[in-house]
Amino acid sequence: MQHLDLQVVRRALEWSAAGRRIWLCTVLTTYGSAPRAPGSLLAVNDGGQWIGSLSGGCVEEDFLERVAEGAFFDPVSIVRYGAGEDPRSRVSLPCGGILDVLVEKLDADCAVLMHLRELQSALLGQRRLIREIDLVSGARSLFADGEQGARIARENDRVRIRVGAAQRLLLAGYSSVAQACAEFALGLGFEVILCDPRDEVLEGVLLDGVEIRRQLPSMFIADGGCHRDTAVVALTHDPRIDDLAMMEAVRTDAFYIGVMGSLQTSQKRFERLRRIGGLSEAELARIHAPIGLNLGSKTPAEIALAVLADILRIRRGIARDQL
């Protein structure tokens, strides 16, 4: 599964290297009904070729027409579609939706090439970046991103955009809860990978859109299967799978690590991880156990909902006491 934003940046890089001018568009904010989340990308070159998406199609068509007519020759501009839209736009969004789009004109030069290469490396999971754009001059800067939080932040004349790999959910072992988690996560736009070496457990399992690897999750993690945009969850109640996955996951940059079990089960697991796995208190503190928000969940779907809600809470940088 390839991240759409990565495809956009790769194609933009090819166009820029070939000497073509590019307009890079980023969804900044959405209100009401909007099919694409903030941070979504679209790129178009001066020959009319384009890749990516801003909405369901009507916005793209209007934008491409305006580029062909010679619009957007300032270094940077913001266009609003929907209620109170830019008077130059010719479309309205359904259900009262509003969409703000950042448009950057990128001439083919060495600075743009370097900038796009840095974005590509971030989208490949090599590191996470914050991209800052000056809305007056169009100047662009990149900073290392060491925290979780909103993908887009706007303050006065500056916009800060978090750039990283596609959100990945790594399911350490199959169970009915893992199946429900996979289904929820796919709907939320996660890349989902399931690792389980047990052929008898996976027999007859169908998970459309999920990459299934018949290997120990701990081996997949040790081989570099996690990056900073990965959530690792173990939901089998089998310590041979769950404990080993935790021991490897805490040595990665995964932004969320969780394992299913009651409070008593979790306490026993932590003791095993200290004694057998040699995990430090700082490493144990990274593990969410019991996993998920306390929603009184009982069924697999309810537990999965609590797990994904907690992952999103961490992803957005929201403390539990702020809920």
Characterization of this structure:
- The chain is an alpha/beta fold and 323 residues long.
- It contains ten helices and 15 strands.
- The strands form three sheets. A six-stranded parallel sheet has the order 12-11-10-13-14-15, with helices on both faces.
- β11 (191-195), α5 (199-202) and β12 form a beta-alpha-beta unit.
- The longest helix is centred in the C-terminal third of the chain and has 16 residues, at 300-315.
- The radius of gyration is 22 Å and the shape is elongated.
- This is XdhC family protein.
Q: Please, how many helices?
A: 10
Shape: elongated
Radius of gyration: 22 Å
Which oligomerization state do the chains in this entry correspond to?
Answer: single chain
Mean pLDDT: 89
Number of domains: 2
Number of strands: 15
Portion in strands:
15-25%
Low-confidence stretches: none
| Largest sheet composition | 6 strands, parallel
Distance N to C terminus: 33 Å
By secondary-structure content and strand pairing, the structural class works out as alpha/beta
Proportion of helical residues: 25-40%
Order of H and E elements: HEEEHEEHEEEEEHEHEHEHEHHEH
Strand numbers in spatial order across the main sheet: 12-11-10-13-14-15
Domain XdhC- CoxI: 15-69
Protein name: XdhC family protein
Domain XdhC Rossmann: 169-311
List keywords for this structure.
single chain; about 325 residues; alpha/beta; Rossmann fold; 6-stranded parallel beta sheet; 10 helices; 15 strands; about 35% helix; XdhC family protein; MoCofactor_Util/Proc; XdhC_CoxI; XdhC_Rossmann_dom
